[in-house]
Amino acid sequence: MAFSYHPDLLAPYKLLDQGSSIQAECTITQKVTNLDQLPNWDFDGSSTNQAPGHDSDVYLRPVAYYKDPFRGGDNIIVLATTYNSDGTPNKTNFRHNAAKTMELAKEAVPWFGLEQEYTLFDVDDRPLAWPKGGFPGPQGPYYCGAGAGRVVARDLVEAHYRACLYAGIKISGINAEVMPSQWEFQVGPCEGISMGDELWIARYLLVRVAEQWGVKVSFHPKPLQGDWNGAGCHTNYSTKQMREPGGIQAIHEAIKKLEKRHDQHIAVYGEDNEQRLTGRYETGHISQFTAGVANRGASIRIPRHVNEKGYGYLEDRRPASNADPYRVTDIVVETTVWTRPH
Ligand code: ADP
Ligand code: MN
Ligand code: MN
Ligand code: MN
Ligand code: MN
After folding, report:
1. ipTM > 0.95 (yes/no)
2. Contacts of 297 (CB under 8 A, 6+ apart)
3. Residue 334 carries which DSSP code?
4. H helix runs in the chain, sequence order
C-alpha cells in the first residue's frame, strides 16, 4: 500500500517576517493573551446552511483559542460559537446548552476522554492505498500494526499528533485501527465543556493536515459496507466520586441511569449509527442496552482494571465517529448527574 502526495508549496512563505501582527483567520494587530481581545464577528450564514438568505447574518462569539500549528509564531486558531441575529443559539450550536449543563454539574467534576476513529480516503473516494480494483486481506494484522502493507499514512498521523500537542490539545495517543486506512486518536481526560472544544479543534487540525497530503478524512461510522469495522467515538467518562476509592458503586448507579435513557442517547450519538451498531464488529446492538466488564460487545464497558481497583471510569461505546461531542458530553452529564426538569 503506497501513495504519493504534494509537497508543501507554502513552506517558504511561512518563514516570512510578519512584524507584530498575528493571524487568527482575520488579522489582529497585537498578540492575544486573553479571550476578551478577540472581537465578535458575523458571517453569511446562508452560505453554510445556517441561516435563510433574507436574514443571513450569523454571529460568531469566540470561546477559546489555540496556538496555530500551521502558521506558527504568535498566530492562533479561534474557536467560536454561532448565534442568530435575535441572540438565540444557532441550530448548529450545541455548545450553548452543553456549557449550561456543565456549569450546573461542575461540583461533580466530570472528566471525559474521547477516542476519535476515522478513515482516510484518496481524492477519488477510495480507501487510501487499498489495492486498485480489489481489497486488502481480511482484518486481523492491521490494529496497532507496523510495517508496509499493514499501516498507511503514519507520517500524516504523526504530523497531526504533533500539531495537536503544539496547539495545546490534550491528545493522549494514536493507534492504527482494525480496518486498514482507519486510525484513532484519543483526547482527554478533559473537564466539562473543554472536551467538546478540544475534540472539535483536533478534528479540524486533522482535516487541515490531511489536506496537505491530498487525503480526505471520513468521520462516517460505517465508511465501507461488508466485513470491515465501523468507526466510533468511544466516550470514557468519570465524575469525582467515580474516581475515588469505592467509586465503582457510582459507576454502577450511572449505568442504571444510562440504561433508562438509551433511546434519548442514541438519538444524539451520530447519524447513520444504525449501520455501525449491529451487535457485530465490537459493538452492542442499537436497540438494546447492555453493560459489562471488559465487554467490547456491550453499550457500556467497565474496563477490567477499573473493576479490579474498584474505582475509575466507564466507557460508553455507542457514540458514532461523526457524533457532536457537545451533544454527547451534554447528555451523559444530564443523565448521570442531574435530570433536566421537563
Ligand atoms: P480503549 O482501551 O478503549 O482503546 P483508549 O486507551 O483508546 O481506550 O482511551 C481511553 C481514554 O480514556 C483516554 O482518552 C483517556 O484519557 C481516558 N480516561 C482515562 N481515565 C479517565 C477518567 N478517569 N475519566 C475519563 N476519561 C478517562
Ligand atoms: Mn482506543
Ligand atoms: Mn474499534
Ligand atoms: Mn478504537
Ligand atoms: Mn475504546
Report:
1. yes
2. 279, 282, 283, 284, 290
3. H
4. 11-14, 95-104, 154-167, 194-213, 240-243, 248-260, 262-267, 304-309, 325-336
Spatial separation of the C-alpha atoms in residues 311 and 73, rounded to whole Å: 42
Pocket test for ligand 1, best of 170, 186, 315 (most atoms within 8 A of CB): 186
Number of residues in the chain: 342
Phi, psi values for residue 251, rounded to 5° = -65, -45
Grid-cell match 502493507, residue found: 149
Residue pointed to by grid coordinates 448565534 = 83
State the average pLDDT over residues 58-65: 93
For 4-19, write each residue's pLDDT tens digit: 666 677 788 888 888 8
User: Largest alpha-carbon pair distance within the chain?
Assistant: 60
Examine the pLDDT at 337 and tell me if it is beyond 80.
yes
Lowest average pLDDT, out of 24-28, 145-149, 188-192, 318-322, goes to 24-28
| Distance between CA atoms of residues 284 and 298, nearest Å | 5
pLDDT, one tens digit per residue, over 95-151 is: 999 999 999 999 999 999 999 999 999 999 999 999 988 899 999 899 999 999 999
Query: Which among 303, 299, 314 has a CA at the least distance from the CA of 260?
Result: 299
**pLDDT value at residue 166:** 96
Contact 5, 214 (CB under 8 A): yes
Q: Rounded CA gap, 31 and 110, in Å? A: 32
**Closest to 208 measured CA to CA, from 247, 156, 277:** 156
Upstream peptide bond of 189 is cis (omega within 30 degrees of 0): yes
Question: CA-CA distance, 314 to 293, in Å (whole number)?
Answer: 10
Could you tell me the pTM of the whole model?
0.94
- CA 115–ligand 3 middle distance (angstroms): 9
Ion ligand 5: residues, Cβ under 5 Å: 115, 234
Q: Which residue's CA is the closest to the ligand 1 atom numbered 13?
A: 113
